[in-house]
Amino acid sequence: MAVRPVDLREAVSTVVWGLSSYTHTELTSLGKKHRLPIPGEEAGTKSQRLEACLEAITDGDLHQVAQRLLDSSHISLHGADRFALEDAVWEAGPVIEIMGRTRRDIAHAIDLEELIHRQDRFEGLLEQFWVLDNDPMATWSGSSSTSRRALIHRFVFRNPGDWSTDDFFEQLGAYEAGSARFGRFLEGLVDPGTLPDAEAQSRVVEAVNVVLVKAGARLEQTGDRDGYPYFQLVRTGPGAVRRPKTLVFATTVKPDIRLVSVVDNDIEVLQDMDQILVYDRPVGPEGIRWRNLQQWWQEKKGIDDEGEAKKTLYERLLKSMPADEVSPQRNFYRIYHENYGVLARDLPALLPEVWLHWDHKTVRQRGVKALLNHRMDFLMLLPHGHRVVLEVDGGHHYATSRAYEGTVRGDRDLKLRGYETYRFSSTELGRDQIGPLMKRFFAGLFDLHGLVRTESESPSQSS
């Protein structure tokens, strides 16, 4: 169930009020470090300053503030406060719903002992997602025999077999938790950091997926870590997103592609990187961010200097777009990077001229069976498998009824393939308000998908 905006505000308010334990000077420092609108000491008492801070946080800024609080190494968040804030942030984004019956079926399908490769790693995972020290009497006695931690040590670690997986999930509170937390916990159970045993990972994933398929989801391998598979919870069924295998983008000509292994579906692009870019690395659960793209470019081109890699990559992507200096597509690309700058290395990369369909024959040769809408103006691969297409439409897209039919048909096809499509008219991108327009759009898009927005220097500038 998606958390209402008021829940996010309540979670943020709880954490901000907790800052009253800091001194006035420390509050001023925290405000600067984390871009919290905490007024100066002249605003009054600490309570008055924190109240003013909360009043200054708009609904549109709530998600960013919450994420910065979670990421902070200077603010101590413990137990229920941290988990409430996490739940509010996670549930505000896209969530795969996992109902209570499905969770119990998952518990019945897997053996608890199969999950525990090393006690310390397993306990570390539990601390990440659940409140283990939940006995208030431990504060007075210094220890507890009834806390979740103590019970897990007794019935899971010291006496294997005393608890079933169902008992274990019940004690953790996994059946009452939000779907976002439960989904992340499932991913953690088969993460190589928790379960560094490929065969055990495979057995658990297979058992879980038999149950998840009924809920329209599955644990899918999206990469490797230290030689072990890495799994992500993804949707299944019509329109479900599959893991990208080959990205052909930033093209100045039609790609010259051949299949080097028909059996394995391995392709080879015969042009060099001045004409075609091919991102051939696994796309992990975070999608492709600017830092991923820059690292790939730096290694492909053998560039030692990070600033030079950033600058040359920016220029190479710009080169793939229409050469007209005032082209709406170029303006779109430039302003995205001007708005989100150097810290946008942690935001999704804006990939231009991405090939969706490819056919060695021309439309005239193929006839009525020709694949249309070969390229996407821009593609963003967001966390959790979300694909966002951004199209800049000229007048020709709507000049005739046939052209309009082709445009809307292409949008339908993209949606059925699991893409979100957003269209911008070339006229609105050529006006003075393009900057504010794009700021509002990306603010909404990133908030929708749980991404933190940043503003800093342009990636075309040096570090």
TrEMBL record:
UniProt cross-references to InterPro entries, sorted A to Z: AbiJ-NTD3 (IPR041427)
Residue ranges occupied by any AbiJ-NTD3 domain in the UniProt entry: 97-263
Record-given protein name: AbiJ-NTD3 domain-containing protein
Protein's organism: Streptantibioticus parmotrematis
Lineage: Bacteria, Bacillati, Actinomycetota, Actinomycetes, Kitasatosporales
